[in-house]
Write a structure and sequence with these properties.
The chain is mostly helical and 150 residues long. It has nine helices and two strands, in the order ααβαααβαααα. The protein has helices spanning 10-19, 26-39, 49-52, 56-59, 64-69, 76-84, 92-103, 113-124, 130-149, and strands at residues 47-48, 73-74. The termini are far apart.
Length: 150
């Protein structure tokens, strides 16, 4: 499976399917492999951030750079596991674990307030002012207090 010019074996397909918790069917994995090979322009069995950003749906995603910083690049198995988090068939647990990794940028197992602000900045870009962003901490504290009291 390391060289993208080779075909997937049945064993490879089953291994990838198991790795992504059976989110994709075997036929879907074959289709994903074909797409992976198209993206892997130099045929090294690895997709770089630059290659991955040629996918229009990810290139326009405000979190795309953050997503790819998590990975640095992808082999085929990682590619399928990465995409499985976006599938409607992924479990809630898979989605929560994935988004937690996106938010926990330093990998310490905690999402800090500053990491939340960074996400807000990534998502809103120039659409809200710094003054509006500064209001966000007060809003969160107020909501946390309301939920604690209820």
């Amino acid at each position: 499976m390391g060289n993208t010019s080779s075909m997937l074996t049945q064993y490879d397909i089953e291994e990838v399917q198991e790795h992504c918790s059976n989110t994709f069917s075997q036929q879907e994995i074959v289709s994903l492999y074909q797409r992976f090979c198209q993206l892997d322009r130099n045929g090294c069995g690895f997709i770089s951030a630059e290659e991955f950003m040629t996918v229009p749906e990810f290139a326009v995603n405000p979190l795309s750079q953050r997503l790819f910083r998590m990975l640095d690049g992808l082999n085929f198995k990682e590619f399928v596991a990465f995409l499985s988090a976006f599938s409607s068939r992924a479990s809630l647990q898979q989605k929560v674990e994935f988004i937690f990794k996106v938010y926990d940028t330093d990998g310490n197992g905690k999402v800090t307030f500053n990491e939340m602000l960074d996400i807000l900045r990534d998502l809103t870009g120039q659409f809200i002012s710094e003054q509006q962003r500064e209001f966000f901490p007060m809003f969160l504290r107020k909501r946390a207090i309301q939920r604690t009291l209820c």
